[in-house]
Design brief:
Chain lengths: 340, 309, 325
């Protein structure tokens, strides 16, 4: 399958009062055509910075693209001019943000905001754009779309605003939809509805989706492939089945144990991961997860593990970066080697 | 780092005590004030303003000690002279040393500016703060009183003060500040209204804190940013007001100098051809106003959390 | 009535009767809390669950008398009706009842050091000498798993989970007996939520605390609650022990809530029959009869006419639904 977007060795830093904060440190992954990719990680792991980098909406300064490429349609997005990027945003790449109230213009009615995106990229009459906008509002499941067109964001509930954001993002049938924590701020029953809407629309349009979230339940429900990020790096990626049933990194494993599942009974306590992610102001030399890892070894402190392929029965790619998976470790410890 | 891809002997032994760094914070700690100061230092224009202000203060405080001349001493033999080794800024139409007059005038002008800012600050914070925090009828009363006072024409107030208290520094300061505190009070009230609803204030209240505690410990420190900016910008306004009034003859009366008063005298001298006499006070007024303004602007940017880099 | 909590006999710490809280808003009166009656036993954790706008946060704050006016009913704490006290008289009780807020970013004053933030309740109530207060601050920091060194740092230097731990340390500074946790984990990453929930559980047994734990998410709440109460649009829908609620939810709303939670298991297929349609109605203009009838798949004629009674459908399991009358 052809990758739609290829991110190669991305390094992004922020210049702050304290010095350089290395937010993204060597991130590489692909997004394939028509797939729903989940990007999972805690706050501060770099997932939002990566997605903002694809859209080139990071403020520079203080952000700085130190290294790497983002290839889409044969072009490196990081090297394009701003006017070229403006043609791509909205048309080829759409984005949905977490805070719908802040992302919608409070002084414009909702319908016009959709129509605006349409007219910026296509030469259509304002009537036609309005009709397209109303059609989008209908597609995202809003009742009475003609009435909704003229309403303002503050008249919408959180779930409705998020539907409006989806309408704006998908209005021009983009190739890639980036959804940055789209349902985190919503109630669980509304989240359910929004995810259903997203899945239906995506299936119809064959767009690729990069869904960023820290909620493993949402990922399990919607994504075929998962990328796990920690402290600015990718520490594991693979098919959803692999990640949930055959996790090969202690962080992924720890995440799965710390999240409640309705099947688990109450007497079995949750096992949280101790501590907090490291301060990327001076990232650790070795494995970033060292200070919180149950399986940490001496080598983990000084040397960062490399990404290793994990063999799987279904042949799909699965890789993780942990010394526990390395051949040297398996050979050195033989029978006593830990299997996650 | 691994050398030649060889692993040390104890590479795969379990690490001991790796959890000690689990919650470590590596970046240096910085308080809000230090951060604001750091950001101000990056603003070259604001720092220039600050330096000029410091120099002006040194000038007016220590200047009279440096020169042998007295600001009021008239020597008709040296009228209207340009700068010389004896009279560093030259002399005016009555033979008075301009350097000494500039220093003395500066003391008056800067004092008035500072006094106006202080009074604005105290009155504004107290009245605006209480109105905003207590709200309700008291807020209504205080704000309507402020608005009524503010609507009295400025010149009328000046003349009234001059009649009641005679002319001089006291009545001048009073005239400038008696209605000048109203914008500050409005600003403080607005700040307090928005801070009052914040969660950390509610947290304090839930712990049993009384209103006075919340006001002093939480509201005032968090409102200080815009208040300091406003106070800083009051100074040049007050200096200019004084200059205008003195220029019109309503302010400092001769022979006491103030920069505005000196400028007023000097207008007549421009016809005679002595530019010195007008240039000295004008440049000083411009310099002081400009530096306070850029400093105030710089402070506003430095204190604004949204402009944090 | 004595209840068994953790296999020990326990007396009620807080009894709430017909608690009602109204707000005057543009367009009418908003009844955020409508005649809530419940009991919290000493040493237990009562979970309170509901979606945005259901009034759960308002309930928590109303119980702590955080509002001036618009409130009626009884709040009996250790024999005293708190509703009859003035705010001044309440100050004494505020030492025993604390609140942990949802947003760890907004509930800490960014200008103060962490040490002064945690010491604030001690300073307000003038407890101990300066030295004793400092020692207590360090003790509390260690209790929540942070370093004593952190007391000189400012809130913006910490992560969300760490800030919430600071809030917990502050709430426990004056050794309260009852803590209302108002959605303390909602704004944290799911992986950090477990940390905070475990910490709260640990502290509960160490310090003999009673919690009212407010959340909008049913999955986490069962790990910390003994009993769970479900609210919808200001009214109580269901109340049962957390095991019982998970095994046999009776109210259609509870069933929908449970069904909507995303399961971290890619092979799990969600049943769509219980998912809710439509939006939550406005609390200013609530639906007639049973407030849930507009979104209920099992609603019938009676539901629109009359509000259902609060009945004990099974021992210890209460529900307000016409299906069980």
């Amino acid at each position: 399958m052809e990758p739609l977007v290829q991110i190669k060795n991305l390094h992004i830093s922020f210049n702050t009062y304290a010095g350089e904060v290395k937010a993204v440190r060597g991130v590489s992954f692909d997004i394939y055509k028509g797939e729903m990719l989940g990007v999972v990680g805690e706050s501060g792991c770099g997932k939002s910075v990566t997605s903002n980098a694809i859209m080139r909406i990071l403020p520079t300064p203080p952000a700085e693209y130190k290294q790497g490429e983002i290839i889409m349609d044969g072009k490196n997005l990081l090297g394009l001019s701003e006017s070229h990027m403006q043609r791509i945003r909205g048309k080829d790449i759409g984005m949905i943000f977490q805070d719908s109230m802040a992302s919608l213009n409070p002084t414009m009615n909702v319908g016009s905001q959709i129509a605006e995106v349409i007219r910026r990229h296509q030469k259509v009459s304002s009537d036609k754009a309005k009709r397209q906008a109303i059609e989008m509002l209908h597609l995202v499941g809003l009742s009475n779309p003609e009435k909704r067109y003229h309403q303002y964001p503050h008249e919408f509930s959180g779930g409705m605003r998020q539907r409006a954001m989806i309408a704006i993002a998908l209005a021009l049938n983009p190739k890639l939809l980036i959804a940055d924590e789209p349902t985190t701020a919503l109630d669980v029953t509304i989240q359910d509805q929004i995810l259903k809407v997203m899945k239906t629309l995506i299936e119809k349009s064959d767009a690729s989706v990069m869904l960023i979230t820290h909620d493993l339940g949402v990922v399990a429900e919607t994504c075929r492939r998962v990328v796990v990020m920690y402290a600015g790096q990718i520490i594991e990626q693979g098919a959803a089945d692999h990640i949930f049933y055959n996790a090969k990194h202690p962080y992924t494993k720890g995440l799965l144990l710390s999240v409640p599942s309705m099947k688990m009974d109450k007497t079995k306590a949750l096992e949280p991961i101790v501590g907090s992610p490291p301060d990327l102001f001076s990232p650790p030399a070795g494995c970033p997860f060292y200070a919180r890892c149950k399986y940490a070894m001496k080598i983990c402190k000084d040397s960062c593990p490399v990404m290793e392929a994990i063999p799987e029965n279904d042949g799909q790619a699965h890789e993780a970066s942990c010394w526990l998976n390395s051949l040297n470790y398996r050979e050195a410890l033989g029978e006593r080697a830990v299997t996650l | 780092m691994l050398k030649n891809n060889t692993f040390p002997v104890d590479a795969f032994d379990l690490a001991t005590d790796n959890f000690s760094a689990a919650d470590e914070i590596k970046r240096p700690s910085i308080s809000y004030i230090s951060d604001a100061w750091r950001r101000l230092k990056l603003n070259k224009l604001a720092m220039t303003g600050l330096v000029v202000i410091i120099l002006l203060v040194i000038f007016v405080v220590f200047g009279p000690l440096a020169t042998p001349h007295n600001y009021a001493y008239q020597d008709f033999s040296v009228m209207n002279q340009g700068p010389s080794a004896n009279h560093w800024f030259g002399t005016d139409e009555m033979g008075r040393d301009l350097f000494a007059r500039a220093c003395q005038g500066g003391r008056v002008s800067l004092f008035i500016g500072l006094a106006a800012a202080c009074i604005d600050l105290i009155a504004g914070v107290l009245i605006g703060g209480i109105a905003g925090y207590v709200g309700g009828q008291l807020d209504n009363l205080l704000m309507r009183f402020a608005e009524a006072l503010y609507s009295i024409p400025y010149m009328l107030m000046v003349v009234l003060m001059a009649i009641i208290f005679g002319s001089g520094i006291f009545s001048l300061v009073l005239a400038i500040t008696i209605t000048g505190w109203v914008p500050m009070a409005r600003l403080v009230r607005g700040q307090v209204l928005s801070l009052r609803e914040l969660e950390y204030v509610q947290a304090s209240r839930s712990m049993g804190a009384e209103d006075s505690w919340i006001f002093i410990k939480h509201i005032v420190p968090n409102a200080m940013g815009p208040i300091i900016v406003s106070a800083t910008l009051t100074i040049p306004r007050a200096i200019f007001s004084e200059a205008t009034l003195s220029f019109l003859g309503l302010g400092i009366q001769p022979p006491n100098p103030s920069w505005g008063q000196m400028a007023s005298d000097a207008i007549e001298q421009m016809i005679v051809g002595n530019l010195n006499v007008i240039l000295v006070p004008s440049i000083l007024i411009c310099l002081s106003m400009f530096s306070f303004n850029v400093l105030g602007d710089g402070l506003r940017d430095a204190f604004d959390p949204k402009m944090r880099k | 009535m004595i209840k068994t909590v953790n296999n020990t006999e326990s007396a009620p710490l807080l009894t709430v009767n017909n608690l009602t809280k109204r707000f005057a808003v543009k367009g009418g009166t908003l009844t955020a809390v409508n005649k809530m009656s419940f009991v919290i036993y000493k040493g237990e954790t009562l979970g309170l669950v509901g979606e945005s706008g259901c009034g759960k946060s308002t309930t928590g704050r109303a119980v702590l008398r955080m509002y001036d006016g618009g409130q009626s009913g009884q709040i009996i704490y250790n024999g005293t009706d708190l509703m009859k006290l003035s705010q001044k008289e309440m100050k004494k009780y505020r030492k025993e009842m604390q609140l942990i807020f949802q947003d760890p970013y907004a509930s800490l004053d960014g200008r103060m050091t962490v040490g002064s933030i945690i010491a604030e309740p001690l300073n307000i109530h003038k407890l101990g000498t300066q030295q004793e207060r400092m020692a207590r601050v360090e003790e509390l920091l260690n209790l929540v798993g942070l370093d004593s060194e952190h007391k000189n740092r400012f809130p913006h230097e910490f992560s969300g989970g760490q800030r919430q731990r600071i809030c917990i340390a502050r709430a426990l500074a004056i050794r309260p007996k009852f803590v209302v946790c108002d959605e303390p984990i909602s704004s944290l990453d799911v992986s950090i939520q477990a940390q905070v929930v475990n910490l709260l559980k640990e502290l509960q047994s160490k310090m003999e605390l009673t919690y009212l734990f407010i959340a909008h998410d049913l999955s986490m709440i069962k790990y910390i609650s003994d009993r769970i109460m479900v609210m919808y649009l200001g009214s109580m829908a269901e109340l049962a022990s957390s095991d019982e609620l998970n095994k046999d939810p009776l109210h259609p709303y509870t069933q929908a809530l449970l069904a909507a939670v995303p399961i971290p298991d890619p092979r799990h297929v969600k049943s769509r029959e219980q998912s809710l349609e439509g939006e939550i109605p406005s609390p200013i203009n609530p639906p007639s009869g049973c407030v849930f009838h507009t979104r209920c798949k099992k609603a019938y004629a009676e539901c629109k006419q009359t509000a259902p009674e609060w009945k004990e459908a099974k021992p210890g399991h209460f529900v307000a639904c016409h299906l069980y009358n």
